[in-house]
Design a protein that fits this description.
- This protein has 15 helices and three strands.
- It is mostly helical.
- It folds into two domains: 1-93 and 106-191, Zincin-like metallopeptidase, N-terminal domain (Lysin, Up-down Bundle), CATH 1.20.150.30; 214-361, no CATH class.
- It has a three-stranded mixed beta sheet with strand order 1-3-2, sandwiched between helices.
């Protein structure tokens, strides 16, 4: 993406300006929260490794702890890493046109980049108050010029806000969150091909955008219909509205893998058990109530942005993992990480028995017999 297509600095400035303040804590308490989150992220690494049997990177460092503005800056950096090269390819494909050159085109691009920067910033300001943590797959090069493999980030003020809002044990809740996020670190560092697979699907999705003006007008109409439907309380969302037919097919694959990784994280954070997080059942009950609640406006925004779809991913993915582990054990489930071909399809997420038959049972039948020992 050329720098003029999105004003990234304006996105950061807008997002930071629109941010709601976090919980009020003193400097000493804030320092204690940061230190404990780092300690618990290290502790969670061992629990995740022992429970899942996954071998991730050697001696991973503790989580990076950020505030809300820090989360916005980190995500803008990630967006730039992913989107700028892709949008340059899209511009090359589009070739000459009303935005491709000349003084008028430069002015239009400059105005458009600022509008888009404000829009991105407003979206990040909303998300920055909700996200508890994430494994950042896409990072800018480090000072030596190398590309980091990823980084686990926890948003301290959001974690404190939610634990206060729910009235749960702070240490238990913080460890519970760390278990989920450290599971993502294990997935993306312990499965060599997974990061590249996700990036490839994202690349194909973006490059499959309709650039034809007529098709874009159809997308705009669908966006307007989605907004109206969401305001009425329907299921309309912007994610579906902006897709081309080819993108919908790609999104099925991307949704399947993200449903798997999110559901796996949700399963592990609960299944590790009360010996690790004594109040886990109480936390899950309270947290689920928070996911399902919110004002009408908040629910409308969640529908539009596809956040409700993400909540369904957690539930569907967790059910898939639980069913497979119950049927074939953790070793049987871990066959899911062998290759892109062993990933469940969107349909198999809903019907785990179909995946078990295809990947576990059939592959066992097709495997050549072991040679008898002399």
């Amino acid at each position: 993406m050329s720098a003029s297509m999105i004003d990234w600095n304006l996105a950061v400035q807008t997002g930071t300006r629109l941010l709601k303040p976090g919980p009020q804590v003193g400097q000493d308490e804030a320092r204690e929260v940061v230190e404990q989150l780092r300690e618990l992220s290290r502790l969670a690494q061992g629990h995740v490794r022992d429970f899942t049997g996954m071998r991730s990177e050697e001696n991973p460092g503790p989580a990076t702890i950020v505030d809300r503005p820090g989360w916005i800056r980190a995500n803008v950096d990630g967006f730039r890493v992913v989107l700028e090269p892709l949008m340059e390819q899209m511009q090359d494909r589009k070739g000459s046109g009303p935005l491709s050159g000349g003084a008028g085109g430069v002015v239009v691009q400059a105005v458009g980049s600022r509008v888009t920067g404000v829009q991105v910033g407003a979206l990040l300001a909303y998300m920055a108050t909700r996200v508890l943590g994430q494994y950042e797959l896409f990072l800018p090069p480090d000072p030596s010029g190398r590309n980091p493999t990823g980084r686990l980030t926890l948003v301290a003020p959001n974690i404190v806000h939610v634990e206060q809002e729910l009235g749960v044990d702070p240490r238990d809740f913080r460890l519970w969150v760390c278990l989920h996020e450290e599971t993502h670190r294990a997935q993306f560092t312990g499965v060599p091909w997974l990061r590249e697979y996700v990036q490839a699907q994202m690349t194909q999705f973006l490059l499959a955008s309709d650039l034809d003006p007529g098709a874009m007008l159809d997308r705009i109409k669908e966006v307007a219909d989605a907004v109206a439907d969401a305001v009425r309380g329907g299921e309309g969302n912007l994610i579906d509205a902006i897709q081309s037919p080819e993108q919908r097919e790609i999104l099925d694959r991307l949704t399947a893998v993200m449903t798997l990784v999110e559901g796996h994280g949700d399963y592990v954070m609960d299944a590790v058990g009360p010996e690790v997080v004594p109040s886990v059942q109480h936390i899950r009950s309270q947290f689920q109530g928070r996911r399902d609640g919110g004002s009408r406006m908040d629910k409308t925004i969640r529908r539009l942005l596809g956040i409700d779809l993400k909540m369904k991913q957690y539930a569907e993915g967790s059910r898939f993992v639980r069913r497979v582990v119950t049927e074939v054990g953790m070793d049987g489930f871990n066959k899911v990480w062998e290759s892109p071909e062993t990933l469940p399809t969107h349909a198999e997420i809903k019907e785990p028995a179909v995946w078990i038959q295809r990947v576990v049972t059939q592959r066992a039948l097709d495997a050549p017999p072991k040679a008898e020992e002399a």
